Amino acid sequence: MSNTSLEQISQQLDSENSRDRLLALAALREVSPEDAVPLIKKVLNDEMLPVRSMAVFALGVKQTDECFPILVKLLETDKDYGIRADAAGALGYLKDRRAFEPLVRAFYEDTQWLVRFSAAVSLGNLQDIRAKEVLLNALESQETVVQQAAIAALGEIKAIDAVEAILNFASSEDWLIRQRLAEALGNLETDKSISALKFLAKDAHFQVSQAAIFSLEKLGQQI
Q1: pTM of the model
Q2: What value does the CA radius of gyration of the chain take, rounded to a whole number of Å?
Q3: Which keywords, in A-to-Z order, does the entry hold (predicted)?
């Protein structure tokens, strides 16, 4: 992108109109990470939460060496739990395994379920088997969405020895939990996984049964 265009985006980020600033952030999709990140940093402390949220997300997409420490600091210190959750999610996009420890701390120490949910999802995105114990603990969460994230993440990290624990959710009343289970089992091939998938393939909820059928096909199994 030309310097003129970058200057236009920079000026738009200085606009008093928050919609202009959001549009400027969206325009950075076409900008190289090296050029985009300095511009993103201009609005990381924006007075409008949607602008800040979009900027944090952008740091997970436009990856430079600067992004990791910025996101960790936001995760650990920002007063707004939505921004902390955004930072946790962005760290998952980075797929930098240095994020493992900060995400684990966030999961155990942050009081907001949304942050714990984002941390669990990102631990799956890192595909680091060290996350297994944290995610098994997440299965005990009082928040259903955190359980959903943990089941999905255990599949992402291919934690075969977690199959017994997640099979306890095969009859959950929450269809999204059953769907996440069906998807996760497609990465966790055991005899019990296949039996559970055949059970879930007959689920009354279409999205659950379809996820189970897809996982069975992925494992080379017939219904």
Answers
A1: 0.91
A2: 20
A3: Antenna complex, Lyase, Phycobilisome
Digit-coded pLDDT (tens) for 85-117: 999 999 999 999 999 999 999 999 999 999 999
- The Cα–Cα gap between 44 and 52 comes to 5
Task: Break the chain down into helix, strand, coil percent, rounded to 5.
Answer: 75, 0, 25
List strand residue ranges (DSSP E) for 58-189, in order. none
Cα–Cα distance between 75 and 183 in angstroms, integer? 29
Comparing C-alpha atoms, which of 168, 167, 181 is closest to residue 209?
181
Angle of the 33-41 helix axis to the 3-13 helix axis, nearest 10: 20
Give the Cα separation of 170 and 188 in Å (integer): 15
Query: How far, in Å, CA of 35 to CA of 77, rounded?
Result: 26
Question: Are the CB atoms for 215 and 183 separated by under 8 Å?
Answer: yes
